[in-house]
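Open question from group meeting: does this chain pack into something compact, or does most of it stay loose? Before anyone orders reagents, we agreed to write out a predicted structure and look at it together. Recording both the input and the output here so the notebook holds the full record.
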Amino acid sequence: MEKVGSAVKKIAYTPPSKRLSTLSPPQLSLIPLLSFASTLYTFATHLRRQLYRFNVLAQLRLPIPVISVGNLTWGGNGKTPMVEFLARSFSDAGILPLILTRGYGGADEAKMLQRQLQGTSAKIGVGSNRAAIAAGFLEQYGYVNYHGNLSSEEQFSEESIESLSYTSRIGVAILDDGMQHLSVRRDLEIVMVNAMMPWGNHQLLPLGPLREPLTALSRADIIVIHHADLVLERDIEALESTIREVKKTVPIFYTKMAPTHLFERGDVSSKIPLNGICNTIVLCISGIGSPNSFVQRIERMGPIHVDHLDFSDHHSFLLKDIEMVRRRLQALEAKFSAKPIVVVTEKDYDRAPEVFEHLKPYEVLVLCCRLRFVVHKGNTEVCFKRIISEHLKSGLSWKNIAPSN
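Structure tokens returned:
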């Protein structure tokens, strides 16, 4: 199954004009089937959106502002890091955020968020029916209205100030991977774009990586180009040009993943400085949407040599995978006459930390990163937060707004 997934991904990121020269015969043989499935997917996606547009399927309006963080393609776009950034920002401002995530892939992203946001006021609801999950949390904790200020000066409505313990009541909901989750109305649509692999072959799933056509960018209130530090300026300009063709006035921001430290397998409280892997042999293991970004960041930390084994996004590591990793480690040890270090992502570790115990006596480290804004064309984190505040202020009368077409 892993081989099929790799073949599909290869097809999705190969331009049609280069298929014959780039793809193998088995990969080429998959294209007719993928093309037929893509046609069915396109029809189903369009039909579903029309059913919501004409109110055949109902959208739930929550009694609090809702921010959707989503994307147009499959993984590696920085959705979950953005959700963590938003939740922490709201919590720091005295506003209790509720994260609604579907819990796909063994709920690895939810587990990671729970660990990262420990000690904050954030609540995390996991489940495919996010409307029902939200209703349960709102009933349990209550909710308040606020004026959307993300600065240190907290501003709440008179109603919330008069309420009891407003900081223990939910003030905003954040939809993780919410762009295609149409059953919940949102006040703000943030769309994440992976600068390293943005649109692939421009085809819809499963022939290409797109969940919706590029015209869906017209629904975005904010677009964030992620991994902006790992591509050339001309690539950023090309991305911006494509986005502006769909929506000229949308604010565009730029982010990266900034490594902060490493921790040891089995001890999440340990903090190893990034130079701890300098002059070492490293094997990167990952089952994420954008493994190249992970490898590039490790290479910047100064190891002598970096090797990598890439698995599909949300991959559940089995004992046969661990045996493969062990064989690669033994080969590296024989080649360099030094014991290599395994480095994994937070998401992979949180998915199943016990799996990596089977790699003893090899050392396993977990790379911790946080989303950071890249200043570009005057757009900064402060500007980003200001736009969010303005949108949420204008949405304070949400209870009287009917679902739009």
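Observations to bring back to the group:
Residues 25-53 form the longest helix (29 residues).
The first strand starts at residue 66 and ends at 71.
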